[in-house]
Amino acid sequence: MNLTPKKPSTALLPLTLTWLALCLLTVFSLGLGKWFHGANWLPLLVALIVWVKGMMIAHYFIEAELTHAFIRRVLKVFIAFAPLWLILTGFFGGQFAQWALSFLRG
User: If you placed Cys at 79, which of 4, 6, 54, 98 could pair as Cys (CB 3.0 to 4.6 Å)?
Assistant: First the structure.
């Protein structure tokens, strides 16, 4: 059993490589939106990219693995929230807009 506490990383190379990967994923997702605008599968792929980027940020910059298990679970749910809503609005955006309008009109 390993009882030594984990310590935050002080290495800059993993952070730099992660930042570059995040930039590349951002440019890639922008390109996907331009090249495949209107494709049915695009919201799923963009949501996957957003989820991967969120997990990378949580792992390398927030260092979520060093936190309490409850905080790690809350963070994972928070990271999954945006991609889930991207998928729902990508496939059911018209229905959400109608519900919002009917809610606002009373």
Answer: 54
